[in-house]
Design goal:
Layout lengths: L24 H5 L10 H17 L7 E7 L2 H12 L6 E5 L2 H12 L4 E5 L8 H10 L5 E5 L1 E2 L4 E2 L2 H10 L3 E5 L11 H4 L3 E5 L10 E7 H5 L12 H11 L8 H17 L1 H22 L15 E5 L8 H10 L5 E2 L7 E5 L6 H18 L4
Parallel strand pairs: 2-3, 2-4, 4-7, 7-8
Antiparallel strand pairs: 1-9, 5-6, 8-9, 10-12, 11-12
Helix pairs in contact: 2-10, 3-4, 5-6, 10-11, 11-13, 12-13
Bound molecules: pyridoxal-5'-phosphate (PLP).
Pyridoxal-5'-phosphate binds next to helix 3.
């Protein structure tokens, strides 16, 4: 059976986290080069990467454009919010978790007029609420939300919300950080004007840059709108189009790794096949954890196959730090929770991990339970 140990570094622990994620050995090996940022080989690689990212979403230039922004995923979310919403514009910022809250925070920092539409972390945004907000306030020009809210693992209904946003002729921004590559997303059908993701999530590259897939019409509106020099989406695109080069030092090694990661995504069978692997990882994890007595934070119908939040067991002998350390000593890295009103820990199903890795993790969890003495 396929197992990540054959293809990742022998000494590293698999990361059952939302990122940085476990990557294949060949993705890491692709970085063993020093390419000049003005070199034709690098310029061609960037061009190819941008085209292939669009192809993952079933779109292409000139209707859509891919812009790469250096930094972690937040840099790209901030770039889009601060480049897209005009000075006289207004943002409807939907939130049901920490990453939705981050969008609200970005708007605040940039003094962008924003109306937060906030749900509890186990609540799902609805198209009806979005429609009501848009009908109530004609000043709203943009709507932003997270697709896979990594705080909990909830998948938000972007198709339904997208349909409402398009009907009301507003621009739609979707943070698909933890879903692009691991779930099919169709920006054209959903009506997404700006889709944001990262190199080191479901496409399984290494951290270092974010990806923006923008409809050309929405991107053209961003000319002269940016509130920052380095996070100017239009400026970055213009430079990439002019001579294929970045305005400022590009993450050459991360791009080499990403190019290899795109080859590996294609070799696996594309997004559908990858989504199937992640779904199998998720099913292996959840059925095993239920058998061990753990309970998920979300209802199964709200839960995606990207990451799962589990409630802390109500047992006096359960202590998360101890649990985490024991698993780490056994060679497995899990992740603390991020839900604000419930004690949880998280286990990610993405990255270069296979069902056999989850079976091994479940055995380690069973052992840790016995050692700590909490029966559920
Ligand atoms: C949905 C979502 N948005 C934004 C981010 C922020 O990305 P980064 O930590 O790379 O800045 C994350 C990170 O996990 C995320 O899951």
């Amino acid at each position: 059976m396929e197992h990540s140990n054959y293809i990742t570094s022998a000494n590293d622990k698999p990361l059952f986290t939302p990122g940085p994620l476990t990557t294949s050995r060949t993705v890491k090996q692709a970085m063993l080069r020093d390419l000049g940022s003005r070199d034709v080989a690098f310029v061609n690689l960037v061009k190819d990467v941008r085209q292939r990212v669009l192809a993952i979403c079933g779109v292409a230039a000139p209707d859509y454009e891919c812009v790469i922004i250096q930094g972690s995923g937040t840099f790209s979310v901030e770039a889009v919010i601060s480049s897209a919403v005009p000075a006289a514009g207004k943002l409807l910022a939907i939130s049901n978790g920490a990453y939705g809250q981050r969008i609200i925070q970005i708007a605040k920092v940039h003094k962008i007029d924003a109306t937060p539409l906030v749900y509890p972390e186990d609540g799902k945004p609805t198209a009806a609420d979005v429609e009501a907000a848009l009908l109530q306030d004609a000043a709203l020009t943009h709507v932003a939300l997270v697709h896979s809210e990594t705080t909990t693992g909830m998948i938000n209904p972007i198709d339904e919300i997208g349909a409402v946003v398009k009907r009301h002729k507003r621009r739609l921004i979707v943070d698909a950080m933890s879903s692009l590559g691991g779930m099919p997303i169709d920006p054209e059908k959903t009506g997404i004007d700006f889709l944001v993701s990262s190199a080191n999530k479901c496409i399984e590259g290494v951290p270092g840059f974010g990806l923006i897939i923008a409809s050309r019409a929405a991107l053209m509106e961003c000319d002269q709108r940016a509130r920052s020099l380095s996070l100017d989406v239009f400026g970055q695109w213009k430079a990439l189009e002019a001579n294929g080069q970045f305005r400022f030092t590009p993450p050459t090694h991360a791009l080499l790794a990403f190019h290899q990661a795109l080859d590996e995504l294609a070799a696996e069978g594309g997004v559908i096949a990858r989504a199937q692997r992640y779904a199998k990882n998720y099913q292996t994890l959840v059925s095993g954890m239920r058998t061990l007595g753990f309970k998920e934070y979300l209802q199964p119908q709200d839960q995606g196959h990207i990451i799962v939040s589990f409630k802390f067991p109500e047992h006096p002998r359960f202590e998360f730090e101890d649990f985490y350390s024991r698993l780490s000593e056994k060679g497995f890295v899990i992740y603390p929770g991020k839900v604000s009103n419930a004690d949880c820990f998280r286990i990610g199903c993405i990255g270069r991990l296979f069902p056999a890795d989850f079976t091994a993790l479940l055995s380690a969890i069973r052992e840790a339970k016995i050692e700590m003495g909490f029966e559920l």
